[in-house]
Structures are given as C-alpha cells and as structure tokens.
C-alpha cells in the first residue's frame, strides 16, 4: 500500500510505467507553458531578463531544496548508533531479504550470509534471497529478541533447516557471535540427496579479507578488518552429526572472487558452479555434485572494490555446522562460543525470551493455549528479524524538474513489511510496525522513529518508500524507484510516538520536536483541501479514463474508491482524520516540552468538531461518512477494439477502457468502507455522536463490512466491491481484510466500550466478536500455510497478496494481548 509497493510485477507494472511516463509528460507540458507566459508578460513589462532569471532561479532553488536535508540538528545524536555507543545492536540480522545473514549497522558494512543447494539432477536450486518463487513451504523466525539471539526454521521441499545465532558482547566492536545450522530431511526415501551449505563473507567497498585454507580446498577461517568493525576471525567448524558427538563426513570447496556488488552475489555463486566434483564417503557410493569452481566474471560487470570469500560444505543430512565470529578487541574470551557453550547460551536466551514475552503480552495469563502463544511469538520475532539497516540514496523528483535527482546519502534502521516482497522501508507501514515493537523494546522504537525523521528534507518532506543501497534497489523494478515530492503518506509514525510518549525522555522529544513541527507543516500546507479544515491527497493518477477509479497511492489505500474524476475540489476524509491525530500528538509533545501548543490544540479541536465533520463528510444518501469530489456513480470498464492495424502489422489486442455512463458532478463519493470508518478508527467521533449507531451498524452488517474473519475494506453492496481497476490490476483495497485497519478498529471499539455513552454495550459486543474473528483466522491461516499474509480474503479468510508478511499483520499479537 505504500504506493507502488503493493503493485505486482508483469503487465500491470509496465502499464503503470507508461502511466507514469505520461504523467511526467503532462507535468512538463503546463510547466513549460507557464514559463512561456511569464516570459511574455515580463517582456511586455520591459523587465524581461530579470523575470526569466527569477523563474529559472525559483526552479533551481526548488530542485536544490528537494535534496537539501532539513537544517534542524539530527534527531539521532551523532555516533549514537555505532559500536561504542550501542554495541549490543551493532551486529544483527539486518539483511531481511536473505534467508539468513548478518551485518553491522555501518554504511558499506561487511556482510555474512548463507546459501544452500539440494544437489540433484541439473544442479537443483540455489537458495539465497527470500523469493516467493522459491516456493518454500515455511520460513521465518520462531524466536528473535531483536538483540541477542534468534531461531529460524526453514522448510524447502523435504529439507528442514534450523538457523540459529547468538551474540556475546565484549571488546569495542560489538563482540562475538556464532551460528548453528541444523539440517535434516523429512519424508524423503534413500539415498538422501546431498546438501551443500555455502557460508560467505563479502565486503562492500571497504575492509579486507584473508582466507586461511586447510588442504587447499577447505576454507577453515577468514581473518580481516573493516571500518568500525576492527579486526576479526571467522571460523568455519567441521560438521558433526545431529547429536554433535561425532564428526560428519563432508566435502569442502571454496571460492574467492572480486565481488561485483552485494546485489549480485547469487549470480557469482551460480555462475561458478560445476559438477565435476565427486563425493566419496568411506564405504559409501561415489556421487557427483555441484560445487564452486572458478569464477569467470559476470556479463555487464564493472570493476568493484569488493571481496567475496565463500566456504562450501557438502554432506548427506542430517548434520550440524557451526560458524564463529570473534572480534579482535575481545580480551580474555572465556571459551569459543561453539558446541556445548553455544547450546547453553541458546537455551538461556530461549528461556529469557519466553519469560519476557509472557511479561510483556500476558498471553499465557489470558489462557491462550501454547500453539497460539508460539504463533504470537513467531509473529513478533519475524517482525524483529525483519529489521534492516540500509544505506544509500533515494531517487527523488519534484513536479518542477525534468529529471530525477539523487537525494543525499542516508542511513535507515527500520522494520520491513515483507522479507520477500517489500524488504525495505515504507513510511506508513512503519508506524504500525512500531506500535508492536514499542511494547517489546521502546528504545528500539524511539531510535527507528528518529531515523525516519532524519530523512526529512528542508521542506519537511519524507519520501514514503525508502530504496537505499544496491541490495534494496535490486528488488524494485527501475520504473518504481522514483519518489515524487508532492506525494504524502499517512503519518502513522505519530501513532507509535503517541504510544511512546508517556515514557519518552525529554531530551529525545526535544531533538524530535523541530522535525515533527516541520513534518506537520508540510502536510498542513501541501495537502490542504479546497475549504478551510479540509485536506486532499496529492498525486492521484491522472488520466481517469484508464482506470475504473484512478488510484490514490499517497493514502496508502491505493485503489480504494475515491471521486471518479480527480479534481482540486476533492476533500479526503481519511487525511482529515490523520491531520486531527497529528494535531493531537504535536500538541501533546509541545506540552511535554513547554513549547507553545496552542495552534495544535486549536487545530485539533477544529478537526474534531463533530458538527463540522458531519457538514463536510456525512453523506446522507450513503448513511455514512465519505469523501467529497467530482464523482460519477455510473462508471464501468468496457472492451474497446483497437484501431485497424497499419498494413503488414498484426492487429493490436483489445483494451479495457473506462466508460462514464452518467456525468460526474460535485457530490459525496458513494463508497462505504475503511475510509468511512476513519472518524471512528482515530476516535474523533464522540461516544454520544448521533452517527455512531450507523457506523457500528455498517461494521456489523454482513452485506457491508462484517465477515467471520475481520472487517472487509469495502462494503459488499458497494458498486466497486471486488472490481478490477484495469485489465491488469485486480482488486486490492476493494474487499480484502487488512490487519492494520482491523487493529485500529479494535482499538477504537475497545475505547468506546470503556467510555460512558449510549453505544457502549454495542461497541463492547462488536469488540469481542471482531477480536475473536480476526485472531482465530490469522492463527488458522498461519497454521495451514505457515505464514502471515499481506491481506486476507473476505469470503474464505485465506491469506492473499504477498507472504511472508510479518509487517503490520503482526499486530495480531497486540489484539491477542488486548494492548491498545
Ligand atoms: C588433509 O587431508 C589429509 C588426507 O585426507 C588428512 O589426513 C588431514 O587430516 C587433512 N588435514 C587437515 C588439516 O584437515
Ligand atoms: C494549518 O494551516 C492552516 C491554513 O493555512 C492554518 O490556518 C493553521 O494555523 C495551520 N495549523 C498549524 C497548527 O500550523
Ligand atoms: C467534473 O469532471 C468533468 C469531466 O472531466 C468536468 O468536465 C467538470 O468540469 C468537472 N467538474 C468540476 C466541478 O470539477
């Protein structure tokens, strides 16, 4: 939903690229026109030279402001995230897009990771980055505390892999860590296929690595140094049997290569594989297998200053392989963190995790059976295990510019919506992520929010999708890299900040405040609506004839129906409610700091005025709150035959185009769904509001929003319910159940149920039923499919969209805990 994020590839992607290109054309056209007019007028006024220069200058300065960082001191104090100030967070699984890997929170960090290959005819499939197309039936962190340790299980056809890590602090560079990979086959006859595990370490433009070989083919260790990390030794231990008592027979291969960039490591390894190797266990059959041989370079490669060292161990499962990383600055190390010591450390961390999980969420106390507690632990852990540390530059463009430009280098510590499909930062998702993480680790949440606010430019704009660095970029089709400077995204970070406020230290809030203020002003000024106290999302799709309903990516709700004909007359209800929330949070922060809060309070009161809200957004004919704009209630998609082909050309395919069967006019938009609920979701509606009964009734009506699995996004009796938006765009926010909005609904119902008012009883009943439905379905789908999903079918409850999606779907943990 953060805009193109929810977009799938293929045809739809190409179509959108075309749309965007046309949009740029259109933006350019009038821009040039304006310049011409100004110049003509200036000529008439004899001030020709001056005016033309002034216009150019204003364009140039707008372009410069776009990439100028905000002048306020950074929200993160300098050096507060490095190995000295924050040693326990220095190393982490901060590469969410690989099945297993670690790196440090440094720009151009050294990376470590795992690939595997089940040997077979034709070489099998090399696994490395999380890909839906790999078809893994399960993977994800079962436990991960965000700092010290993690336990992940992976199921790849008959192969079961457990990947565990433990860190041990010491020295001045984040200390040591160890990995243990446990492999076995399940439900596979003999002979068991051979398994190759590839452990690698790679640099990204800084640092050096030195291999240490045994018998010319076994990479026993790597020593090296890197900025911030200092010197270290990485040791690849020999495999053992599952009981860890006996050595396990294995073949060893290794690769040393110049790395053409971290995003191409899979290709380097794949292109180096050869099956000229033979596995010869004593007394066993000889078998050929694929192993890294020599690396000949990749097509299109340009020289880099990166090094890759890779250790391949090939064995017949079951078996266990351990790897240790030892920091050069640790003195008086008690023992190597391997074998029994590693097992002991793991069990200590597991016990501590279980205790802290229960203390934080109390699911045992609430009577959830163990399998459901495990499910909730996995949801939280997968969100924590999806934390990433990114470094690079965004590609940004303002409507005044012809060409996109690179924003300054930035770093971002953030959770990600999906390790496979969206392994990067998304502004509106992140606020929801931090609602959960703030309960587990408020210090982490505060740091993440500060990271995001430090991405702000001097205008107060934060690009909503953060595609930083080559690894992140490699996951995004080139046409979607651009961030447009007029485009907002819901300020959900303020939801998380509101949760953190009671315990947030004043110096932290003081550093945040100038940036919060600038961010608020940016929304208030750039997304203002046609009337006072109304708001409008900018950047809707132009060219309405191409879509059943032009999308509003900025809102996060992509294809949720809005006015059929985008115009400056529109007023968007959800944005108005977000602004009320923003005013409330800004006022609270200002009051905590003794800063002037008056203007925010005035704004909050005006935006919460239920009378004005009704006047601007209550649609009597719909019996619900709604957007307002230039809208036709009768539109449809129709097949259009193409123009006859030119001689000798094949005929073009017919196309779906929009047909408007009734002229649009200014009126309320006839769509009942999530947007209609916003006054309730963000608790602007007074408990005694005469509209509350109708809102609750729409939620409970099966013809409208109620399902046995949660609230659907668009009423079943709404004209665009489950309608495709184009030939290539299936419905997205037009019926499916989304967990973030359901969480907000539970939060609001819980609050109405606990406040005096005529609807109190009804709110309480709805709350109980909705919570039961949502939790039961997410648990059931997870048990069946192994994953949390992006959204859920309103007819079957089944997971849909991408997976794994332990982004905001992990909010189910808070629903179980009744923590709002
Ligand atoms: C090298 O290989 C020989 C023969 O296979 C073996 O006996 C010896 O232990 C190996 N040395 C090391 C250091 O692994
Ligand atoms: C938001 O913008 C309106 C219109 O420009 C202005 O009157 C109001 O004071 C602004 N609110 C705040 C809190 O800055
Ligand atoms: C509504 O859209 C139609 C079709 O684009 C346009 O002709 C009309 O002027 C618009 N009305 C308003 C009030 O914007």
TrEMBL record:
Its main location: endoplasmic reticulum. GO terms for molecular function: Glc3Man9GlcNAc2 oligosaccharide glucosidase activity. Gene3D superfamilies: 1.50.10.10, Glycosyl hydrolase family 63, N-terminal domain. It comes from the Eukaryota. The chain crosses the membrane at residues 36-55. Residues 340-818 form the Glycosyl hydrolase family 63 C-terminal domain. Pathway: Glycan metabolism; N-glycan degradation. It is a single-pass type II membrane protein. GO terms for cellular component: endoplasmic reticulum membrane. Residues 90-250 form the Glycosyl hydrolase family 63 N-terminal domain. One of its GO terms (biological process) is oligosaccharide metabolic process. It catalyses: N(4)-(alpha-D-Glc-(1->2)-alpha-D-Glc-(1->3)-alpha-D-Glc-(1->3)-alpha-D-Man-(1->2)-alpha-D-Man-(1->2)-alpha-D-Man-(1->3)-[alpha-D-Man-(1->2)-alpha-D-Man-(1->3)-[alpha-D-Man-(1->2)-alpha-D-Man-(1->6)]-alpha-D-Man-(1->6)]-beta-D-Man-(1->4)-beta-D-GlcNAc-(1->4)-beta-D-GlcNAc)-L-asparaginyl-[protein] + H2O = N(4)-(alpha-D-Glc-(1->3)-alpha-D-Glc-(1->3)-alpha-D-Man-(1->2)-alpha-D-Man-(1->2)-alpha-D-Man-(1->3)-[alpha-D-Man-(1->2)-alpha-D-Man-(1->3)-[alpha-D-Man-(1->2)-alpha-D-Man-(1->6)]-alpha-D-Man-(1->6)]-beta-D-Man-(1->4)-beta-D-GlcNAc-(1->4)-beta-D-GlcNAc)-L-asparaginyl-[protein] + beta-D-glucose. It is found in: Endoplasmic reticulum membrane. Its EC number is 3.2.1.106. Residues 1-32 are annotated as: Disordered. Keywords: Endoplasmic reticulum, Glycoprotein, Glycosidase, Hydrolase, Membrane, Signal-anchor, Transmembrane, Transmembrane helix. Residues 9-27 have a biased composition (Basic and acidic residues). Cleaves the distal alpha 1,2-linked glucose residue from the Glc(3)Man(9)GlcNAc(2) oligosaccharide precursor. In the context of N-glycan degradation, cleaves the distal alpha 1,2-linked glucose residue from the Glc(3)Man(9)GlcNAc(2) oligosaccharide precursor in a highly specific manner. Belongs to the glycosyl hydrolase 63 family. This is Mannosyl-oligosaccharide glucosidase. It comes from Falco tinnunculus (Common kestrel).
């Amino acid at each position: 939903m953060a805009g193109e994020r929810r977009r799938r590839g293929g045809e739809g992607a190409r179509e959108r690229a075309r749309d965007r290109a046309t949009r740029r054309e259109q933006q350019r056209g009038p821009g040039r026109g304006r310049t011409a007019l100004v110049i003509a007028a200036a000529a008439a006024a004899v001030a020709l030279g001056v005016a033309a220069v002034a216009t150019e200058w204003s364009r140039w300065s707008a372009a410069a402001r776009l990439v100028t960082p905000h002048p306020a001191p950074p929200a993160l104090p300098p050096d507060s995230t490095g190995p000295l100030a924050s040693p326990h967070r220095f190393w982490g699984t901060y590469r969410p897009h690989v099945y297993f890997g670690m790196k440090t929170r440094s720009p151009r960090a050294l990376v470590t990771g795992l690939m595997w290959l089940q040997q077979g005819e034709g070489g099998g499939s090399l696994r490395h980055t999380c890909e839906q197309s790999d078809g893994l039936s399960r993977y994800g962190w079962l436990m991960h505390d965000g700092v010290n340790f993690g336990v992940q299980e992976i199921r790849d056809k008959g192969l079961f892999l457990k990947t565990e890590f433990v860190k041990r602090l010491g020295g001045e560079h984040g200390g040591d860590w160890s990995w243990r990979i446990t492999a076995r086959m399940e439900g596979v006859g003999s002979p068991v296929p051979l398994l190759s595990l590839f452990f690698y370490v790679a640099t990204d433009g800084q640092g050096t690595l030195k291999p240490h070989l045994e018998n010319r083919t076994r990479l026993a260790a790597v020593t090296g140094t890197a900025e911030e990390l200092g010197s270290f030794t990485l040791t690849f231990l020999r495999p053992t049997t599952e009981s860890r008592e006996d050595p396990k027979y294995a073949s060893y291969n290794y690769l040393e290569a110049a790395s053409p960039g971290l995003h191409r490591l899979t290709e380097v390894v794949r292109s180096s594989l050869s099956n000229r190797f033979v596995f010869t266990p004593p007394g066993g059959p000889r078998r050929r297998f694929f192993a890294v041989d020599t690396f000949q370079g990749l097509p299109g490669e340009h020289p880099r200053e990166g090094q890759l060292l890779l250790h391949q161990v090939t064995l017949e499962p079951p078996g266990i392989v351990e790897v240790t990383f030892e920091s050069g600055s640790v003195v008086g190390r008690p023992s190597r963190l391997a074998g029994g010591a590693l097992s002991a450390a793991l069990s200590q961390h597991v016990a501590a995790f279980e205790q802290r999980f229960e203390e934080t969420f109390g699911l045992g106390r609430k009577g959830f059976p163990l399998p459901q507690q495990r499910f909730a632990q996995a949801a939280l852990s997968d969100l924590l295990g999806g934390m990433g540390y990114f470094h690079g530059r965004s590609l940004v463009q303002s409507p005044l510019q012809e060409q996109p430009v690179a924003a300054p280098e930035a770093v971002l510590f953030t959770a990600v919506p999906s390790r496979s499909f969206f392994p990067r930062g998304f502004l509106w998702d992140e606020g929801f992520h931090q609602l959960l993480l703030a309960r587990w680790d408020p210090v982490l949440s505060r740091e993440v929010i500060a990271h995001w606010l430090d991405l702000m430019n001097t205008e107060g704009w934060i690009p909503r999708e953060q595609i930083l660095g080559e690894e992140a970029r490699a996951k995004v089709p080139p046409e979607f890299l651009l961030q447009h400077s007029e485009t907002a995204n819901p300020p959900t970070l303020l939801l998380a900040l509101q949760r953190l406020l009671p315990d947030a230290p004043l110096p932290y809030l003081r550093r945040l405040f100038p940036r919060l203020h600038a961010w608020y002003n940016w929304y208030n000024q750039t997304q203002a609506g046609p009337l006072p106290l109304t708001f409008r999302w900018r950047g809707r799709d132009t060219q309405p004839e191409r879509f059943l309903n032009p999308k509003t990516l900025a809102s996060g709700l992509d294809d949720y129906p809005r006015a059929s004909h985008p115009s400056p007359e529109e007023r968007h209800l959800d944005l108005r409610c977000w602004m009320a929330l923003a005013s409330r949070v800004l006022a609270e922060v200002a009051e905590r700091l003794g800063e002037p809060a008056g203007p925010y309070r005035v704004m909050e009161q005006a935006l919460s005025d239920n009378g004005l809200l009704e006047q601007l957004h209550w649609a009597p004919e719909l019996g619900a709150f709604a957007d307002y704009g230039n809208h036709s209630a009768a539109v449809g998609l129709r097949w259009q035959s193409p123009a006859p082909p030119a001689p000798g050309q094949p005929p073009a395919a017919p196309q779906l185009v929009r047909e408007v069967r009734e002229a649009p006019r200014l009126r309320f938009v006839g769509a009942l769904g999530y947007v209609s609920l916003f006054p309730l979701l963000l608790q602007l509606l007074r408990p005694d509001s005469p509209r509350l009964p109708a809102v609750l009734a729409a939620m409970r009506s099966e013809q409208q929003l109620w399902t046995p699995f949660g609230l659907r996004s668009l009423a079943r009796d709404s004209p665009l319910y489950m309608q495709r938006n184009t030939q290539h765009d299936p419905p997205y926010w037009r019926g499916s159940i989304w967990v973030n909005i359901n969480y907000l609904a539970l939060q609001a119902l819980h609050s109405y149920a606990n406040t005096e008012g005529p609807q109190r009883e009804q709110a309480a009943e709805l709350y109980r039923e909705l919570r039961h439905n949502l939790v039961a379905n997410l648990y059931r789908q997870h048990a069946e499919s192994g994953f949390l999903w992006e959204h859920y079918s309103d007819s079957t409850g089944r997971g849909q969209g991408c997976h794994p999606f332990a982004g905001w779907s992990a909010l189910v943990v808070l629903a179980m805990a009744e923590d709002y």
